[in-house]
Amino acid sequence: MAGPEIKAPPFRDIPTIPALIPGAMAASKPYVANQKVQEGIGFRGELAENWQELAIEKMGDLLGKYRSLKVYMDSCVHCGACTDKCHYFIGTGDPKNMPVARQELMRSVYRRYFTLPGKLFPSLVGAKDLTKEVLDDWYSYFWQCSECRRCSLFCPYGIDTAEVTMAARAIMDHIGLGQKYSNEILAKVNKIGNNLGLPGPALEDTLQGLEEDVKEETGVDVKFPLDVKGADVLLITPSADFFAEPHIDSLIGYAKVFHAAGISWTLSSYASEAGNFGLFNGSYEMMQKVAMRIRDSALELGVKRIVVGECGHAWRVAYAFWNTLTGLGGGGTDPFSIELQKQLDPTFRQPSHICEVTWDLIQQGKLKFDKSANDHRTITFHDSCNVARASRMGDSPGGQFDIPRNIIKAVANNYVEMEKSTVREKTFCCGGGGGVLTDDLLDIRVKGALPRMEALKQVSDHDGVNFMATICAICKAQFTKVLPYYGFNMRVVGGVHQLVSTAIKLGDEQ
Ligand code: SF4
Ligand code: SF4
User: Fold this and answer.
1) Domain that holds residue 221
2) How far away, in angstroms, is 434 Cα from ligand 1 center?
3) Could you report the per-residue pLDDT of 58-111, keeping only the tens digit for each?
4) Counting atoms of ligand 2 from 1, which one is nearest the CA of 154?
5) Is there a single domain that holds both residue 452 and residue 317?
6) Element (H or E) spanning 469, and its range?
7) How far is CA 428 from CA 2, 148, 283, 371, 431, in A?
8) Element of type H or E holding 381
């Protein structure tokens, strides 16, 4: 049976704070993971009978483990600075999508069980029992947060709602209330090596097909190597790059860059996924398990450098967590970390982002472009949340903003910036990040895209922008789906390396 028709909210003339519509999104809930999936990744198969007790126990565990979470629970002064900063609140008007209200879903329970006033006088301090009704609200609204961290940028105390959301999801997983989409992905990556469940032989076929396509298009033998021992570079890229549009065009771009610069590289069938949904679920253990595949693969293949493709949260995990998760990039003291440190070439950043690789090569004069090949495009750039607000690139502050833009300007003539309150660190989420990219959450995804779509519409109307580049697999998939709801063609979105691919001179064209 078809569900209610999903409609995009109308564009606003002036981006004002929306009128409140209490409960507007209360019914928006993702499908629950089934028993097999839950148990397959080490969680309870279904909601435990004593779920309340288990949830409080887990909350206590997380509060003890993560001091930041305890600080976030204690320090909000309800100043209101974050209230209108969330794209999901802007798109829905549901007051529970205000970041402060989202945090309050957990904070009220925290007060009840972990503070003296909350234990003695709950109603006086807004403390709440963890009832089934409260749990229902958690399941709705903590899956209406893309963990984008925009709200935290505006909070005078730096309270990170994303971390609160991660803790809530970790608690729900623990009691047996997992989200189908994210947990199925974690099951697939643990079993097969990528989020899509694409086995090694299928991956090999896909890469061979790409070699043939590129040869036909350019006349050049650009290789897409797989499991090549002794290659210099191991490329870890989101599995969407292997088959989805427009992602695949960026993969072609990476291959052309390596070809043109004469760099030997390989993909891995064992670690064929850059994405790491353990981050979205707040599970350090899960994140580590996914990341260890990359370390094992790097050791097995004997590479000197690890490069990460266009994927926002993958880059965050690689940049910020790989060192402590796996000893990759430094920090590990176990024998495998030490071996890897000896193996990797210290003259490169470990890991490197593909944009850092390409920009370094451009600066060294090792890549040549025909910029006019992109003249049919007027381009803007969408900063992806996890790159913009949770990582860096290059050697200068703000490199994560400047490097992708520098590449675009090096390969294309027509570039336009979107409204400044929507770019760089203030960027708006695409609406599909943080484990929300599933069709059962399409309504919130469409509504949450409103602020980005408004900024795009502005440059489209005034400057003729017809291409929005981004360096995130989730942003690409989300925009492809939601652009038509706002009257745009789905092909308006694409990768930075798609633009590189269009303009690069391979030097040996026939
Ligand atoms: S989606 Fe982003 S802005 Fe909204 S509450 Fe979550 S982290 Fe904050
Ligand atoms: S901006 Fe920070 S302190 Fe102010 S209401 Fe939001 S979370 Fe609380």
Assistant:
1) 186-355
2) 10
3) 999 999 999 999 999 999 999 999 999 999 999 999 999 999 999 999 999 999
4) 1
5) no
6) strand 467-470
7) 30, 8, 25, 29, 8
8) strand 379-381
Contact criterion met (CB below 8 Å) for 29 and 140: yes
Please give the C-alpha separations between residue 6 and each of 3, 71, 439, 447, 491, in angstroms, as whole numbers: 8, 38, 11, 9, 21
Give the number of the ligand closest to the Cα of residue 97. 1
Cα–Cα distance measured from residue 75 to residue 79, given in angstroms and rounded to the nearest whole number:
11
Among 178, 6, 2, smallest CA distance to 92 is for 6
Ligand 1 pocket check: which of 141, 150, 160 to mutate, most ligand atoms within 8 Å of Cβ?
150
Dist CA 353 CA 274 (whole Å)? 11
Same domain for 346 and 450? no
- Tokens read off for 222: 């650009």
Give the residue, by CA position, lying nearest to ligand 2 atom 8.
Answer: 76
Q: Verify that 342 and 211 share a domain, yes or no.
A: yes
- Is residue 385 in contact with ligand 1, taking CB distance under 6 Å? no
For residue 99 and ligand 1, the question of a CB distance below 6 A is answered with yes
Is 3 part of any domain? no
Report the C-alpha gap between 299 and 303 in whole angstroms.
Answer: 7
Q: 478 with 441: CB under 8 angstroms?
A: no
Q: How far does residue 191's CA lie from ligand 2's centre (Å)?
A: 41
Name the residue with tokens 């707040």: 282
pTM as predicted? 0.96
Peptide bond into 15 cis (omega under 30): no
pLDDT in tens, 16-38: 889 999 999 999 999 999 999 99
Last residue of a domain, one of 127, 152, 178: 178
98-116 exposure pattern, b = at least 16 Cβ within 10 A, e = fewer: bbbbbbbbbbbbbbbbbbe
Q: Which of 178, 209, 228 is the last residue of a domain?
A: 178
Indicate if 318 and 371 belong to the same structural domain: no
Outline where 115-224 has alpha helix (H). 116-120, 132-141, 150-154, 161-175, 180-192, 200-218
Sheet-wide strand order for 493-495: 379-381, 467-470, 493-495
pLDDT digits (tens, 9 = 90+) for 399-453: 999 999 999 999 999 999 999 999 999 999 999 999 999 999 999 999 999 999 9
Residue from 71, 83, 97, 155 to probe ligand 2 pocket by mutation (most atoms less than 8 Å from CB): 155
Burial environment of residue 157 by CB neighbours within 10 A (0 to 12, 13 to 18, 19 or more): middle
Question: How many angstroms does the Cα of residue 194 sit away from the middle of ligand 2?
Answer: 37
Q: Do 66 and 200 belong together in one domain?
A: no
